[in-house]
Write a structure and sequence with these properties.
49% strand, 7-stranded mixed β-sheet, 4-stranded antiparallel β-sheet, mainly beta, 1 helix, globular, single chain
């Protein structure tokens, strides 16, 4: 089975940066996408970014565009989410999720739909203090 290990969360002051990592194991092909989601207490889960492992396409929600950057290290089977200019409203548990073999049109339209993802990591807490 595919396993995802998310790490890199922590406590940071507003304006600071963190880099989240999502290590993917149990899958040796590159036809997948990794989505980053977050969920704050009492709030719905929100898709904030997605990266296609096959062609490197990236997607961002309006709330993080220009501040967050997704990237991948294919040799390490690891995807990263660089988060800069963090705000208190970025505080949440962040999850990475695996979508096996998405076609391009589906990814463009549905990358924020959590139901499309097949496997989920355990989450890592990000807390941004004001």
């Amino acid at each position: 089975d595919v396993q995802l290990q998310a790490s890199g969360g922590g406590l940071v002051q507003a304006g600071g940066s963190l880099r989240l990592s999502c290590a993917v194991s149990g899958f040796t092909f590159d036809d997948y996408a990794i989505g980053w989601f977050r969920q704050a207490p009492g709030m719905e889960r929100e898709g904030v970014s997605c990266i296609s492992r096959s062609d490197g396409s990236t997607y961002y929600s309006d709330s993080v565009k220009g501040r967050f950057t997704a990237s991948s290290d294919n040799a390490k089977n690891t995807v990263y989410l660089q988060m800069n200019s963090l705000k208190p409203e970025d505080t949440a548990v962040y999850y990475c999720a695996f979508w096996w073999d998405p076609d391009d049109s589906s990814l463009v339209d549905e990358w924020q739909a959590s139901d499309e993802y097949d496997y989920w990591g355990q989450g890592t807490q990000v807390t941004v203090s004001s």
